[in-house]
Amino acid sequence: MSTVNAPNPRLDSTVRIFDQFYKYDTQVPVNEYDAVYSYFMMVFKTKDAAANFTTALFRVADYTSTPVLTLLQSMQTQNLDAIQVSATLAYFLNGTRSPSTLLGVNSALTPNFFTARNVVS
Question: Would you list the domain boundaries of the chain?
Fold first, then answer.
């Protein structure tokens, strides 16, 4: 006798995560995606933010070769709020980016005097 909770073996139980801007594309198990997405929904309360941070966490997991549930568990045990989650993911994502496009860096750059003098606004 079949039950309602029995998975259908003819259906694919993975989720495709892709980001066209950064050329990121991967397939992950649906239970891992749901766990990460639901955590970020509790933290951020908007679907867009939760989806973007979910994609970011999977990118970090791929880059560091760490299971995504291990990263998620470490974030959950620290009991982070939205700002701390953003700072943590910015730290990890900066390891995958060019130094000229770092996230979360707020330092005003002062140009060379002679170069700034030649700029016409």
Answer: 14-117
